[in-house]
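During the no-cost extension, the postdoctoral fellow (Dr. R.K.) reprocessed legacy sequence entries with the updated structure-token encoder. One reprocessed record is reproduced below for audit purposes.
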Amino acid sequence: MFLNLTSRTRNKLLLLAPAAASLETFTGKVISSEHMHSELLADAQRLRGRVYLDDAAIGASELTSDGRHISALDEHSWHLLTVSPSGRAVGCTRFRQHPNTVNAGELCVSKAPLAKSAHWGPRFLASIDSEIHSARSAGFPYVEVGGWALDREIRGTSAALNSVLATYAWSQLQGGALGVSTATERNGSAAILRRLGGSPLEHDGAALPAYYDESYKCMMEVLRFDSRNPNRKYAGMIQSLADQLSTGPIVRRAPLGRRPPRVLPAPSPAPSFHWLNAFEATA
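Re-encoded structure tokens follow.
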């Protein structure tokens, strides 16, 4: 069975926004806090660290001393967190939004092994450039989606499905988006993304192949998505998620002029207090 959609959870979705993000389409609570954003992001990075290490996708040496998996994209990206009733991040996804004037070589995905192949590399970059051109023609940003991690307790549940469908919901709230993501074949991520509307990149009408990534020690695929073309079966769920995200809480990194000196959060297994209660207290 693909997913157990009868599973009921009390998990909630929470968005972390970078300082420069436009929030015009969001009507929920917005908290501009460097400290809160940093701690929540650190919790998501610890979740990634645990999940990736358990899946043997990374080694312990690739984590910080407090177990975080940090990407250079994290600081300037949106993050969607699935938060448990206890305030713990049990799911996370990262959205790095680029202007549609970006070049393929400037994207993180341009470092994928497929891009370095003598045979497939030029085709891969040409395909990405074509996608960016399509985004420019549509007036959409171009998005790199990644940083997916799901705690074992929500794998195979509706919460897991929501964390993927939220890519389309978030993109629609941005006015639309085209984007790309790398996904593993090992845990079925690539198959799930294709089922929800993702598709392989193409060059001259031919799909680009999966490839082996030595860093993650598994087969990977690079998949494209268009916020206008999800699997129609999930259109209602995507709209419901868009409604949740547009009215739900958002923690925004403080604008540059208002930032205090940055202090990294102390190592801890979870946030220092219940974040959902914090939102209720600021009502």
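Residues 1-9, 260-283 have pLDDT under 50 and may be disordered. The longest helix spans residues 34-54. The remaining legacy entries will be reprocessed before the final report is submitted.
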